[in-house]
Amino acid sequence: MARRQLEDVLKEVRRIQIVARRQVNDLMAGEYLSVFKGRGMEFDAVREYVPGDEIRSIDWNVTARTGAPYVKTFCEERELTVLLAVDISASGTFGSQRLSKMETAVEVAAVLMFTALKNNDKVGLLFFANDVVKYIPPRKGRGNVLRLIRELLAAEPIKAETDISRALEFLGRVQRRRCVVFVMSDFLGPDCSRALSIANQRHDCIAVTFEDPREMQLPDVGFVTLRDAETDELLELDTRHPQVRALFAKAAQARDQRLRGWLRRADVDRLEIRTDQPYATSLQRFFRMRERQR
After folding, report:
1. Per residue in 236-275, pLDDT tens?
2. Are 179 and 80 in contact (CB under 8 A)?
3. Which of 64, 119, 238, 274 lies 20 to 30 Å from 35 when distance is taken between CA atoms?
4. Which residue has the higher pLDDT, 143 or 13?
5. Does residue 194 lie in a domain region?
6. In a domain, 249, yes or no
């Protein structure tokens, strides 16, 4: 990486660090510690067996040594492992607002990372497009979080169709321990419901979706040329015609309904992020929804 480019990245890391920290206290107040279902259990102690205890909880080694039945007791894990699976396909570079979808994803990821850091959780990162691009295993600490943010900022968009299923299949091979997985993408790719369902059985998967308002509705601005960021295919439209704008909006609604169907079949919660709305509000709303579910 050239010196100037490195300086720009480090400057952006400092900016994002400030932005993210402003949101963290609000998220912690929103019961971050209690909103993720199915947190694992860790061994706590052994105690003497009392009538009514589960036979399966008997510690046979201690029982054999003492001559009296003892059972294992467990407590809920106080720490989480958080993994961010981030789509870096070129469609994320689109943006009609202050930030593109990818730039918004970087800030949202940073907020989640610093929130996890405050809870002393492990955080890891997985980049993908049509295949896995890079995987950084979960670790603890502020240095790790800053490194992951630098990696996000330095990631180059890839001109390829998004394939979330491949990323989740890879995750299933490398991440055996249960974790919270934020799948961050615009989900403009093939049906990934089966892979999401399988991953969600082992982990707690959340789909973080990114949308720009210009992907849902066209303004009346005359002739426009649209280019697919991943295939370079060009399409010319005359936005003066109401029917053209209506068909565009209808196609966008169909995409959204299709995605909702995928997530419903996989039983995966959705965190919706729009580039024209404050993402902090969306995060807080999501955390409150998860808290009510519990």
Report:
1. 888 888 898 999 899 999 999 999 999 999 999 999 999 9
2. yes
3. 274
4. 143
5. yes
6. no
First-to-last alpha carbon distance for the chain, in angstroms, is 46
Longest dimension (CA), the chain: 86
DSSP 8-state secondary structure symbol assigned to residue 212: -
For residue 197, CA distances in Å to 30, 126, 284 come to: 27, 19, 25
Q: Are residues 49 and 18 in the same domain?
A: no
* Cα–Cα distance list, 10 to 1, 20, 99, 151, 270 (Å): 12, 15, 18, 11, 31
Instruction: Say how many domains are in the chain.
Output: 2
Do 67 and 91 belong together in one domain?
no
Question: Residue 19: inside a domain, yes or no?
Answer: yes
Three-state SS for 200?
Answer: helix
What does the block give as tokens for 204? 């707690």
What Å distances lie between residue 212 and 29, 107, 209, 274, CA to CA? Answer: 28, 15, 10, 6
- Tell me, what CATH number does 139's domain have? 3.40.50.410
**Residue 184 sits in the same domain as residue 98:** yes
Angle value at C-alpha 27, between 26 and 30, nearest 5 degrees? 90
Tokens 């294992």 belong to residue: 72
Same domain, 127 and 149: yes
User: Which residue type sits at 20?
Assistant: A
**Is the per-residue pLDDT at 86 higher than 70?**
yes
Q: DSSP string spanning 146-172?
A: HHHHHHHHHPPPB-S---HHHHHHHHH
Do 14 and 130 fall into the same domain?
Answer: yes
Domain membership of residue 51 (yes or no) is: yes
DSSP-assigned states of every residue in 249-290: HHHHHHHHHHHHHHHHHHT-EEEEEETTS-HHHHHHHHHHHH
Beta strands in 178-274 (DSSP E): 180-185, 204-211, 223-227, 234-238, 269-274
Do both 60 and 160 map to the same domain?
Answer: no
State the pLDDT at residue 33.
Answer: 60
Range of the domain at 56: 43-76
